[in-house]
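Chapter review: from sequence to fold.
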Amino acid sequence: MTKQHQEFGQFIRDSREKLKITLRQLARDVEVSPTYLSQIEQGNFSPPSEEKIRLLAKQLKLDEDELLAMANKIPSDLKPIFTEQPRPVADFLRTAKGLSEEDWEKLRKQAQKMQKE
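The token string follows.
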């Protein structure tokens, strides 16, 4: 059991309890067994697949990308972007490391403008 697994599982449990959703109800909604979900919440199992994490995010009213990041998973829709242009994407991300959320938003808007041109 790693610290990351514990943190992910505890976050899922805290989010579920905050919404007053039972373990059995959430397990049913994300199509896993209650035992499996319990083991994830206890940090005994690794975070589930991307598909299940997306379902968890939806049921727990969480951002999918943030929950995937917490599980140390890269969203599958981003992988082709990286593989199509590995060097510029990697260079850009390394250069942008440490930027504020506000700076990222400015970059996102700039990229949207560039796509429209």
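Two observations follow directly from the output. The first helix runs from residue 3 to 18. The chain is about 70% helix and 0% strand.
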